[in-house]
Automatic annotation (TrEMBL):
Pfam families, alphabetized: DUF4235
Top-level division of the source organism's lineage: Bacteria
InterPro entries xrefs: DUF4235
Name listed for the protein in its UniProt record: DUF4235 domain-containing protein
Keyword annotations of the record: Membrane, Transmembrane, Transmembrane helix
Transmembrane segments annotated in the record for this chain: 50-71
Organism (species): Nocardioides malaquae
């Protein structure tokens, strides 16, 4: 079971990181299209308007978390089809 656990850890990590990178790229482009400006590099910087920092944190956090969740679910489905059972940590007792 330890081997399956290691495989799942690597597989789910790769899926989540890939999804986060794709989501970040899409969010950056959408932000530029919507505002005409680059997204804030550091929303905590006092020079960034508060509304812009809050909007960026909300949009980017939601989109990246959603993309990671969807990618991990897709990876879990592939893992289950390949092995015949859910990945470690997702199995029901």
């Amino acid at each position: 079971m330890a081997s399956g656990s290691k495989i799942w850890n690597v597989f789910s990590l790769a899926a989540a990181l890939g999804a986060a990178a794709v989501a970040k790229k899409a969010i950056d482009g959408s932000w530029r299209a919507a505002t005409g400006k680059n997204p804030p590099e550091n929303p905590a910087d006092p020079d960034v308007d508060l509304w812009e920092a809050v909007a960026w944190a909300t949009v980017s956090g939601t989109a990246i978390a959603l993309a990671r969740m969807l990618a991990t679910r897709k990876a879990a489905g592939y893992y289950a089809r390949s092995t015949g059972h859910l990945p470690p940590g997702l199995q029901k007792d």
